[in-house]
Design brief:
With about 475 residues, the chain is mainly α.
């Protein structure tokens, strides 16, 4: 993780490297990340309502079809119908859900293309229901529909808990599927389903911070990908989960379990494939270069990390222009990489790229945006650690109003700013001003956390210490005056 330490050196305690965001892209996060609430399957009203019908037990498929698609009867009793007529009726009944399934699959593809993610996910639910009706719950086709739904929950809705639940259900169905498949086409479809469900499981585990489980699941997806290549004689295309997606996910899972060399190998493989397919200036390389830089930082290879981040920054400027949120993010990461090196010659570069980042954020997202404020806070930390206390104080003071607008007057961010300003004043020997600022901080902390919270107690103790120092200082000055 990229941080700046005190007195011109940069340590690992103050700056945080970006963590994975949106289809597992790693982006820069705030200095202190809040826990993310992951919805559970029980909260999914779409799934509950759509599956109410399909969860009926011991109902023959043709009876479920009658319930779903009633076409009206001729008045004939069951006794009057011949067995042949019954078979024809069942075939007729089956043709309707098969048509509906094909329509839902086509509609899903259109909705995904139009980025109508919620509606696309609902269609995937319908595909599962229709697959259960047509093939039965224990058929591999039903597992395929469940795997696609799980992948949809992951990539369209960003809900790893639901994704994991349905992927596990698909896996259970495939494990109990005992019918021998003689068709090469069926074998390939089953292997493709295995790739989708294990990839979905792996990424879902990764998003829930279970690196070990993620790595094992993604390894299974990798083995299935190799098997598919053998079935297709080396050529695979048009897969829902691309080889690049799987390689990147394996790199991130390896990084999560601290297998740095393995993670680096996966990321380098992914970058080579992307460059071969799209060239050296594609935006797909940005996050990969940033993640490789993270690995190099962990390996203490600061210069290599800077080089990768410079490449990412260059692509951002080329693709998104210099004044854009993506370029602002890349600039901030580059500033922290220079800071992490601890080289005094890089001080100008640190300041330059921090200012570029803040300027770009202010121009595109506004002064009150959380990304803007977070970058200013990080820059102020570096300034304080490098003896630029007055400049840091001015910047922090200017952000208080923006923080109050963005986050509220009584927010933990505003409290932290007052705390930082108080510490700066204390370091400058301005005790009275420091006490005033820390009292404002304490008032907000008590409101937000309560008086017994560790942060409130620590601030109160610091105020008491400063007040005693102030009294002692006054007494010493009084004694000195009397002696004169």
């Amino acid at each position: 993780m990229l941080t700046a330490s005190s007195r011109g050196k940069i340590g690992a305690s103050n700056f945080f490297w970006p963590q994975p965001a949106s289809h597992v892209l790693l982006g820069r996060k705030k200095m202190r990340a809040s826990p993310i609430r992951i919805p559970t399957v029980s909260n999914d009203s779409d799934w509950d309502s759509c599956f109410h019908l399909s969860q009926q037990t011991n109902i023959p498929a043709h009876q479920q079809i009658d319930d779903l698609y009633h076409t009206g009867g001729s008045g004939e009793s069951e006794e009057d119908a011949t067995s042949k007529e019954e078979e024809e009726k069942i075939i007729d009944r089956m043709s309707l859900p098969k048509d509906k399934l094909a329509q839902s699959q086509k509609k899903t593809a259109v909705l995904i293309k139009e980025k109508m993610n919620t509606q696309a996910n609902q269609e995937l639910i319908r595909c599962v229901i229709l697959s259960r009706i047509i093939f039965g719950e224990e058929h591999w086709k039903c597992a395929q529909a469940l795997a696609n739904l799980a992948y949809g929950y992951l990539t369209l809705r960003g809900l790893p808990a639901q994704a994991k639940k349905h992927a596990e259900s698909a896996r259970s169905t495939l494990l109990t599927w005992k019918v021998n498949t003689t068709s090469n086409k069926e074998k390939k479809e089953i292997v493709e389903t295995l790739i989708v469900l294990y990839y979905t499981l792996g990424v879902a585990w990764l998003l829930q911070n279970h690196g070990r489980e993620a790595y094992f699941s993604l390894q299974k997806a990798e083995r299935s990908m190799k098997e598919l290549k053998e079935l297709d004689k080396g050529g695979i295309c048009g897969l829902q989960v691309s080889e690049k997606d799987l390689t990147v996910a394996l790199g991130r899972a390896s990084l999560a379990i601290q297998r740095l060399n393995l993670a680096l190998a996966y990321f380098e493989k992914a970058t080579d494939n992307i460059i071969a397919a799209k060239g050296e200036k594609t935006s797909d390389l940005i996050s990969l270069y940033q993640e490789i830089a993270q690995i190099e930082q962990l390996r203490r290879n600061h210069q290599q990390a800077i080089q990768y981040l410079q490449q990412a920054y260059s692509i951002c400027v080329s693709v998104f222009t210099e004044v854009s949120p993506r370029t602002a993010e890349a600039s901030a990461l580059l500033a922290k990489a220079y800071a992490m090196s601890g080289d005094a010659q890089h001080r100008d570069a640190v300041e330059l790229y921090f200012i570029k980042s803040i300027t770009a954020y202010q121009a595109t997202l506004g002064s009150e945006n959380s990304e803007t404020l977070t970058t200013i806070e990080e820059f102020c930390q570096w300034l304080v650690q490098n003896g630029e206390k007055q400049e840091a104080y001015k910047l922090l003071k200017a952000t208080v109003k923006s923080q109050a607008i963005s986050r509220g007057d009584c927010s933990e961010e505003v409290a932290q700013t007052f705390y930082n300003m108080g510490r700066i004043c204390f370091a400058k020997g301005e005790l009275r001003k420091a006490i005033q600022l820390l009292k404002k901080c304490l008032m907000i902390q008590v409101f937000v956390y309560g008086s017994e919270h560790i942060k409130s107690r620590e601030t109160k103790q610091l105020i008491t210490l400063l007040q005693r120092s102030s009294v002692v200082s006054k007494e010493e000055n009084s004694i000195q005056d009397s002696q004169q």
